[in-house]
Structure formats: C-alpha cells, structure tokens
C-alpha cells in the first residue's frame, strides 16, 4: 500500500515534537482548504460474492493528495479530521461526490452496484444527517436502495434509542447499514439484536490472522445468521482466507484478492467491463 501513497508521505508525521505540532496545524489548515476546494477524491473498492465472483457492491474511500507531501494515508487524515471536527464536512463532500458519480454513470447506462459510504460517529450524531442524504439522493435522481452506510461499532455501543431511530429512518429510505471493522470495538452483542442494521463487516485483522481467530469468526457468522444479519469479510488477500470464509458460509468479501480500491477512471472502466461480462 505504501507504494500507492508515494515516497515522501510519511516524513511530515515523523519529525520532532515541536515541528510535529506546527506541522499538524499546517496540515489541519491544508486539509480544511482541500475540503473547501473539494480537492479530496474518491476511490471505489468493489465487493464480491465469493462463489459466483459477481460484484455485489463497492465502497467509497476518501483520498487526499497533499500538494507537497503527496497522498496522505487515509488513517492519518481521517484521524486528523475526527480530532478537528473537519470530519463532517469531509464526509459530506464524500456523499456529494459519490452520489454525483453514481448519477453520471447511470446516465452513461452503466449498471452501478450498491455503494457504501463511511460515516463517523460525530457525523452520525448531526441533527441533519438524514435530510442531507435525502437531499443529495434527490438531486442525483437516486433512491436509498442504491447506497449503504458503514458505521463503526462505537455508534451502537451505547445502545442509545435516538441512534436506533436514525438507523431506522435510513433503512426506511432503503439504505443498508453495515457495522464496519466488526469485532475490534466493544459493542454489546445485545445491541445487535435490538438495533436496526443489515450487515456486519468482519474486520480485516481477524481475516488476515484467520487461524488464530477461526472460532471468533465462526461465532460472528453463526450469530449473525440467527439474527438475520448479513456478514461480509474485509481485507481478504489470499486464496486460503477466501476458502476458509467460504467454508464458514461467509460469501460476501472485499479485499485485494479481488480488487484494490480503484481511482475514478479505472473504476468507470471496470463498471463498463463488468457490465459487458454480466448478463442481468
Ligand atoms: P475501512 O472503512 O475499514 O476501509 C477498508 C480499508 O482497508 C481501506 O483502507 C482499504 O483500502 C483497505 N483494504 C481493502 N482491502 C484490503 C486488503 O485486502 N488488504 C489490506 N491490507 N487492506 C485492504 P484505506 O482506503 O486506507 O482507508 C482506511 C480507513 O480510512 C477506512 O477503513 C476508513 O475507516 C477510513 N476512511 C476512508 N474514507 C473515509 C471516509 O470518508 N469517512 C470515514 N469516517 N472514514 C474513512
Ligand atoms: Mg469502511
Ligand atoms: Mg472496514
Ligand atoms: Mg477496517
């Protein structure tokens, strides 16, 4: 992955403490400007059905190319955005751009799979999240069935009623709700029973250390089945991981074994090719 981000990108994070804090403020300002100027871009990573090898969805992932430092790792600028409240405007830009791309592709008669967008806890708490999404769906002639939201376990961990009400509102629009990086947080399992979600996304740390986590993965899949919740595995890189997941009947997968996140032009070509290959 490091290759993808270019050679110089880490230096800004590795300088001395004083410089680091100055750099941080600079970086925060640069990120704010990049969001305001809508310079952040979107990459799309397809999701697959493991048996049929069909595309079942795609995830929109934020990318930021800093004018001096090149691509900044998402882990770093997302953390920065979360600490500085820039995350709300960042994710609104992601929603705007992603839905507008989907609209463009549909106008070109491309079949676009359900597309997920990551929503952080601070953003999820915003009063006007649902109207904002509705407005952008409407502007782009889309319906909720065409998108999905990936939330973190922390959003459901406290079992707050108003959170569940918001989840229900989103689902009523046809939007699917997935719990991202599942297993790494601390959500009480009881909230899974009561909360309005569609899918658990098993974290890549489990998948990539399959043998040590086999029992946990099996338990998550079995529990989900009983609760009528779907499962997807992220970070699938090897054939062994894929086969182990299939053996546990986890058939939705995402990972480098199928595709890396693709930049916009490449993803459009991918959609074109996929449409030619698939008989709907
Ligand atoms: P995530 O939502 O769990 O996204 C999956 C991450 O795993 C992505 O990293 C993806 O490129 C990477 N990945 C996918 N398949 C594989 C694989 O087979 N092996 C490995 N090693 N990695 C794989 P990325 O794009 O660097 O994003 C990292 C994280 O940044 C995301 O994790 C997500 O938490 C966050 N992120 C990105 N865009 C947004 C956004 O718009 N909002 C929020 N809140 N977070 C975002
Ligand atoms: Mg995600
Ligand atoms: Mg994830
Ligand atoms: Mg993850």
UniProtKB/TrEMBL annotation:
Segments forming domain EAL: 24-275
Signal peptide start-end: none
Top-level taxon of origin: Bacteria
Keywords: Membrane, Transmembrane, Transmembrane helix
Protein name per UniProt: Diguanylate cyclase/phosphodiesterase
């Amino acid at each position: 992955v490091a290759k993808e981000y270019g050679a110089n990108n880490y230096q800004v994070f590795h300088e001395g403490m004083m410089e680091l804090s100055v750099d941080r403020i600079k970086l925060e300002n640069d990120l704010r400007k990049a969001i305001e100027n809508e310079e952040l871009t979107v990459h799309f990573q397809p999701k697959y059905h493991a048996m049929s090898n069909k595309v079942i969805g795609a995830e929109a992932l934020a990318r930021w190319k800093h004018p001096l430092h090149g691509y900044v790792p998402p882990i770093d600028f997302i953390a920065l955005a979360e600490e500085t409240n820039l995350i709300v405007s960042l994710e609104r830009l992601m929603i705007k751009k992603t839905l507008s791309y989907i609209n463009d592709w549909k106008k070109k008669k491309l079949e676009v799979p359900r597309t997920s967008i990551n929503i952080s806890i601070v953003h999820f708490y915003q009063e006007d999240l649902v109207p904002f999404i509705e407005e952008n769906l409407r502007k782009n002639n889309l319906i909720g069935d065409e998108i999905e939201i990936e939330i973190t376990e922390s959003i459901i961990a406290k079992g707050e009623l108003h959170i569940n009400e918001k989840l229900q509102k989103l689902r009523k629009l046809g939007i699917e709700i997935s719990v991202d990086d599942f297993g790494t947080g601390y959500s009480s399992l009881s909230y899974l029973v009561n909360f309005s979600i569609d899918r658990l996304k098993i974290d890549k740390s489990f998948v990539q250390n399959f043998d040590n986590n086999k029992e946990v993965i099996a338990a998550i899949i079995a529990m989900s089945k009983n609760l009528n919740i779907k499962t997807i595995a992220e970070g699938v890189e090897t054939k062994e991981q894929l086969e182990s997941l299939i053996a546990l009947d986890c058939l939705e997968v995402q990972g480098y074994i199928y595709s890396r996140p693709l930049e916009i032009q490449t993803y459009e070509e991918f959609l074109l090719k996929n449409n030619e290959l698939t008989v709907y």
